[in-house]
Amino acid sequence: MQKTEGEESKAENEEVKQVTLMTSDGVKMKVEISIVYEMEIVRSFIEVNDADHSVPFPLPNVSSHTLDLIIELVKNEYDDEFMKTFSHDELKEVLVAANYLNMKTLLDFIATAIANLLEKKSVEFIRNFFNIVNDFTPEEEAEIRKTNEWVFQDLDED
Amino acid sequence: MEFEGLPEGCIANILSGTTPIDACRLSLVSKLFRSAADSDAVWESFLPSNYGSIISQFPNYPSKKALYLALSDHPVIVDNGRKSFQLEKKNGKKCFMLSARALTITWGDTEEYWGWTTNAHSRFPEVAELRMVCWLEIRGVLNTLTLSPNTHYAAYIIFKMIDAFGFSNLPVELSVNFLGDHGSTKIVCLDPTGVESLDITSAGLQRPNVRSDGWLEIEMGEFINTTVEYEVEMSVMEVKDGRWKYGLVVEGIELRPKYEN
Q1: Alpha-carbon gap: A70 to the closest alpha carbon of chain B (Å)
Q2: Do B17 and A111 touch (CB under 8 A)?
Q3: Shared domain check, B152 and B42
Q4: Same domain membership, residue B219 and residue B103
Q5: What is the pLDDT of residue A16?
Q6: Phi and psi at residue A88, in whole multiples of 5°?
Q7: Are the beta carbons of A130 and B2 separated by less than 8 Å?
Q8: Is residue B83 one of the residues assigned to a domain?
Q9: Are residues B179 and B230 in the same domain?
Q10: End-to-end CA distance of chain A
């Protein structure tokens, strides 16, 4: 990143601003403010309250492991290769966290990754993946199959 | 890991990254999934980004999904009747047909050689009917930015033979190229009847297929459409044999994605 001289000297004199986040498992993590600013939920709080950054900001829905993954993803500028090392559970955890933290870029990135994973997979696979219970009656299911008939022709469920 | 509380918008976000087939299929997962899979946000992402500029006016559909399905089920006539536009249902890729009026037909304005008629089975108001020529030359041009990027396309000449004469076993040259660039040329026979003749010049030549709409089509050539702008030129030529011929009825030239099987 290009910096003007003024900014450079300022950056040298001032250590990188950090915000302390408290994860669901009680871990306090100091996170660079540039990363924190991608989390709309935290950013809006800081901006409105001009909060004291040393007081941990609680994230009751995000584990320290998930937060680690998110920080690494942002630091690596959303590197596909890095994300490919994630387990399915990790992908889902990051998805839920990105949604909760309201991180637009991360949410789009992770949604695309999961979309690629779900393409051509069976309905049962998706239910298992998201741990979702089928809440349709057989009649409702038949109705969906009928209205989307063109999709269900010559389809092999795996 | 519980997924309760994952909002519909988030699921819609994921489904937008899949295909229309997947989105429809996955509406079976649960009520929340169905609601997301039918949402305008998802189907807007499946529609070509510039569909609004291609179709100047279309009826109000209750949803983007309904619009998508309408555009993929039937071609829409655009550009004052000169082209038709359609989406490939499974992936939303753009298909165009240039009507005969949008093509450059040598002698096309001379009544003795070519006539312009209506055909009840055509999507276009007019088709071109060959009355009598020796020199058969039809050319079409389309800007590649009109098409879906990063897609393998093929061009097809769409026609009928009505009381035709002169085409049996006649080699006809079809070519597709980027303007000012080398392309591909192939020799075919436009006569669908395929009577094996003793005439060695037409033996083994590709012949047209009958489409579901009753017209005949034959592939003219193919190209990869990247994101670079070209004028793609397609032509039908028979000027070598030079015999008199008539009865070829041209609906247009269609460009649609091609898939390797």
Answers
A1: 17
A2: yes
A3: no
A4: yes
A5: 72
A6: -55, -40
A7: no
A8: no
A9: yes
A10: 48
Q: Which of B50, B76, B102 is the last residue of a domain?
A: B76
Which residues form the domain of A113? 5-119
The count of structural domains within chain B is 2
Same domain, B140 and B232: yes
Q: How far is B62 from chain A (nearest CA, A)?
A: 15
A150–B89 CB contact, under 8 Å: yes
User: What type of residue is B240?
Assistant: K
* Structural domain range at position B213: 94-257
Query: pLDDT by residue (tens digit) across B60-106?
Result: 889 999 999 999 999 999 999 999 999 999 999 999 999 999 999 99
The minimum CA-CA distance between A49 and chain B, rounded to whole Å, is 27
**A105–B contact, CB cutoff 8 A:** no
Residues from chain A contacting residue B28 (CB–CB below 8 Å): 123, 136, 141, 144-145
Looking at the partner chain, which of B17, B25, B30 has a beta carbon nearest the beta carbon of A132?
A: B30
Q: In this structure, is residue A75 part of a structural domain? A: yes
